[in-house]
């Protein structure tokens, strides 16, 4: 097996695992949306958790300067076509997309981690972490 064949096999395995995660692992539309944004926009989970419905206006995802690592600049990312389905399924109200129980603050990374771990367990995926979704 040459390097290109190995890369192709690895990519196929990864795509299969991601598909399993979204079809068998995540149970709620909210959880699917959270990790779909992280995956399809290559965002850090903390950036996704800080999003509001207004940050998803039009066909772009806006990461505000105050929520990005380094807080250097606001970033605008094109919305991946597959995100449309997750957005339609969750139909988020205005305000925070992923609020904690009382609704005034965003869900924390510490709260998102067990959601991902449980989904990975259901999808029979080992060794995944929230860093899996950010390819920088």
User: Which stretches are low in confidence, meaning pLDDT under 50 for 5 or more residues running?
Assistant: none
Helical content (DSSP H or I, runs of 4+): 40-55%
* CA-based shape: globular
Strand percent estimate: 5-15%
DSSP summary: helix tally: 5
Major sheet description: 2 strands, antiparallel
Strand order of the largest sheet: 1-2
What does this structure look like?
With 136 residues, this protein is mostly helical. 48% of the residues lie in helices and 6% in strands. The protein has a two-stranded antiparallel ribbon. The radius of gyration is 15 Å and the shape is globular.
Secondary-structure map:
Blueprint: H1 3-25, H2 29-41, H3 45-49, E1 60-63, E2 75-78, H4 81-90, H5 109-122
Antiparallel strand pairs: 1-2
Q: Top keywords for this entry?
A:
mainly alpha; 136 residues; 2 strands; globular; 48% helix; two-stranded antiparallel ribbon
How would you briefly describe this protein structure?
This protein is mostly helical. The protein has helices spanning 3-25, 29-41, 45-49, 81-90, 109-122, and strands at residues 60-63, 75-78.
């Amino acid at each position: 097996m040459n390097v290109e064949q190995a890369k192709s096999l690895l990519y196929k395995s990864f795509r299969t695992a991601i598909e399993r995660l979204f079809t068998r692992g995540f149970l709620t539309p909210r959880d699917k949306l959270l990790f779909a944004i992280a995956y399809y926009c290559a965002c850090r989970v903390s950036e996704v958790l800080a999003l509001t419905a207004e940050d998803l206006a039009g066909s772009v995802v806006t990461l505000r300067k105050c929520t990005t690592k380094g807080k250097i600049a606001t970033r605008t990312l094109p919305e991946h076509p597959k995100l449309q389905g997750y957005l339609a399924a969750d139909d988020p109200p205005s305000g925070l997309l992923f609020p904690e129980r009382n609704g005034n603050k965003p869900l924390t990374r510490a709260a998102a981690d067990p959601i991902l771990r449980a989904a990975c367990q259901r999808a029979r995926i080992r060794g995944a972490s929230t860093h899996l979704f950010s390819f920088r």
